[in-house]
Design goal:
By secondary structure, the protein is mainly α. Helix content is 70%, strand content 0%. The protein folds into two domains: 39 residues, no CATH class; 79 residues, no CATH class. It binds heme C. Heme C binds next to α3, α4, α5 and α6. The site of heme C (HEC) has 24 residues, from α3, α4, α5 and α6.
Amino acid sequence: MVRLIGYIQESGLGGRETMNKNLRSVFVAMAVGLGVAAAGMPAHAGADSPMKKWMKTEVQPAKASANWAKLQTLLGALGSKNPDAAAFPKWKQFADDGIAAAKKEDKEALNKSCTACHNAYKKQYKEKFPDGAAP
Ligand code: HEC
C-alpha cells in the first residue's frame, strides 16, 4: 500500500491529459499489489497463528484463573523458544520476569511482564513470524 500511495503521489503530478493513463496505471498497480499481498499471505489467513492461539488458549486462561504453577511451566517453555535471539534479545528476560512474578503470585508484576514483551516484540514478531510456532 505504501508503494501504491507513493505511486499515486508521483503520478498525480502529471497533469490533466495524462490523468487517464495514470489512473489506468494505478489500477494495474493496485491489482498487482493485491496479487502480491495475497501470495504473501500465510496459509492460515484469517486464523490465529499457532503462537497467538497458544497465548489465547493456554497463557491467557492460566493468568485469568491465577494458575501460578501452570504459568511458570508455560513461561518457561516460552522463554526457551526465542525464535530470533538477535531480534528479540530480551525475550527470555521477559518470560523469566513472568516466572518470578508467578512464583510470588504477584498478578501486577505478571501483567507487567506480559505487556513488556508484547510492547517490545509483538508487532515485529507478527511481521517476521506470521506462522510462528507455539512453544
Ligand atoms: C517473551 C514474550 C512474551 C511474553 C512474556 C508474553 N507474550 Fe503474549 N504474545 C507474544 C507474542 C510474540 C504474541 C503475538 C503472537 C502472534 O500474533 O503470532 C503474543 C500474543 C498474545 C495474545 C494474543 C492476543 C494479542 O494481543 O495479540 C495473548 C492473549 C497473550 N499474548 C497473552 C499473554 C499473557 C497473558 C502473558 C503473560 C502471562 C503473555 N502473553 C506473555 C509474546 C509474549
